[in-house]
Amino acid sequence: MTLHSYSWNAASQLQVEGPRFGLDEKTDASTNYLPTLPGFHSSTCRPPSAKNQSLSFVNGYMMVRSPLSPENKPLNTESVRRPMTSPIGGTKEVLDPTDVSGRYSFYRKKADRQNGNIPLPFCPSSSLPPFLEHDRRVLLFNAYYEENVLQSAVEEKRVLVSEIYFYVEDGTMEIIQTKQENSGIPQGVFLRRSKVAKPGSSRFYEIDDLKIGNEVMIYGRKFHIVSCNGSTKEYVTKNHGWGTQEVESLPLPRDHFSESIKAKMRRESGVPGVDRKRKMNDLKLVMESMLGKESSITDRGMFLECGTDALCFHVIWDDRERLYGDIQYFRLFYHLADDTIEIMRAQVKSNDGRDGFPKLLKRSKLPKSGKPGIDSDYYTWKDLAIGESLNVFGRMMLIAKCDAFTRQYYASNGIDLKDDVVLRNSEKKVEVKRVIPPYNGFGSEEDSLRSCTGSLNPPPPKKDLQKMRDKGGMILRFNAQLVSDKSDDLNRRFVFQFFMEDDTISIREPPVRNSGVMGGSFLGRNNTIKRSNGEPFTAKDMYVGNTIDIVGHRFLLLNADEFTYKLMECDDRTFPYSSLPRLQEELSTKQDQIKTYFLSSDYDGNGILDMEGLTACCNHIGLAFNEQEIITIWRKLDKKGKGKVAFKKLIALSSEEPFGSGRL
Questions:
Q1: What counts of helices (H) and strands (E) characterise the chain?
Q2: Is 389 exposed, middle or buried (0-12, 13-18, 19+ CB in 10 A)?
Q3: 396 in helix, strand or coil?
Q4: Where does the pLDDT of residue 141 fall: very low under 50, low under 70, confident under 90, or very high at 90 and above?
Q5: What's 285-317 look like in SS3?
Q6: Quick check: 349 pLDDT over 70?
Q7: Alpha-carbon span 353 to 109, nearest angstrom
Q8: Which tens digit of pLDDT belongs to each residue from 187-208?
């Protein structure tokens, strides 16, 4: 088999196959016009197919760019811009810059700019909008307003300096107060940027209203405009026709209080060259010496000799010559290290009606004339003696006595002090017995006692929380009758309730038709006391047959409900009259007499026993039971509530054998 070599020539192949593809011999074989088939390779890239943007914004307005016309299109496409989108159909291109009926192309606008024509979108008579013309143009005015200071002995009026910013683009204003150091006033933004209306009008403030010297009322504050900055002067003079006098600055009023505060702060901060006119704090001297500052050693010798030793005297100030004056007692300490005097109040009696202040005179040198000065003569320890008076800034005080150390110090220096002066006569204390007034009936008695024995704002009486948890919900209810001499009160019935959780009593009267008495609450829930001994009612006082004297009325307890009977029978300690074991023990001692009673002629019940017969039997054998005890025994005998039982049950209850063993 013979292999033939195959060689391909692009030029020869183009001559043969060129006419089929519309190519001639002038076409370069290396171009990209060859079909994309296997074996064909080209190194040229595809022409760019991206489209240029046809819309743009000029001065905030949308403009349309037109593509190049075919006759003006250059041959070299690399040196010109690529074609843009096709023009908008149905729109003509105008040549007059003042004609807004057609399309104004980008190239037409460029030509008009080069020729000096007026460009769209504005006509010759139009101007820029305010937000563009006055963009970021702010006028600054300095002003102040005054505030009255009430209840102050230092100042009468306070001057507050502010800055008014006027934004020309929209006519808004902003006011910022100038911050003052240690003023105690929340300063800063007084008014946020907004339009401010004139008082009594719907119109807003304008630039011409802010002339220097004018008064502007803004939210109740009268602002006095005094000056403005340089750019503001230039603008209002050029555009608003303000004169020279209208932009001339005015002085601010003097604020004496602020000036005094600034002078004080300069003295406190230690500004060099400022006359402090006051003694530097001792603690500041110590801190400065710890930081390395050299201190004076003039008085160090006396400090090393005396240390913290001080002479103590008791002095008296008799001020009874003045209205509401009194005798007051003080202690005077004389410090030997620096010859300073300190006077403190002595508490000689309690509850004297005076505020307890610690010191009458701070530790300092005491001038004899009462007025400190450069040439003043000061007290020394040699001027202090018992029986002598000293002037403490206009207060004449008598030195009455001293302590043992002071006497020893004077004796060591050859000076003998006199005997102590009696400070005061012994006053007999008057014992005042506290008499508690009688209870007036308002509120509970515990609250009334709190007001008599407690403080001015007494706390509520304490409650027994353990008792409230144990006895919560336990209420004794009785049917009661009003004991009265009046015939209308004989048929009145009441519901008597006793709350065991806090020993309170409430009484209600059920309404009865045509009785002439309005029912309802007779006594609200409250703590009450006995009229006999003044003690409060307890649960032991609640039993059937007892007469309770309360709030001026007497109530007889007739009977109780089933819950009350069971509660009383289960608690023998609180309710002794409902203790069945005690009653059974008493009956057992009278067992033979009970049998004899039923065999005697006094009994005619034919073997049947009712509650009245039980009472008669107990009275016959000598057992004086009350109604509650009789009810307790009867409830044990008549469990079914028939009202009648056999007399054998009473005999069995009184026997020694336990009741309910099957004998009955």
A1: 16, 22
A2: exposed
A3: strand
A4: very high
A5: HHHHHHCCCCCCCCCHHHHHHHCCCEEEEEEEE
A6: no
A7: 97
A8: 889 999 999 999 988 899 999 9
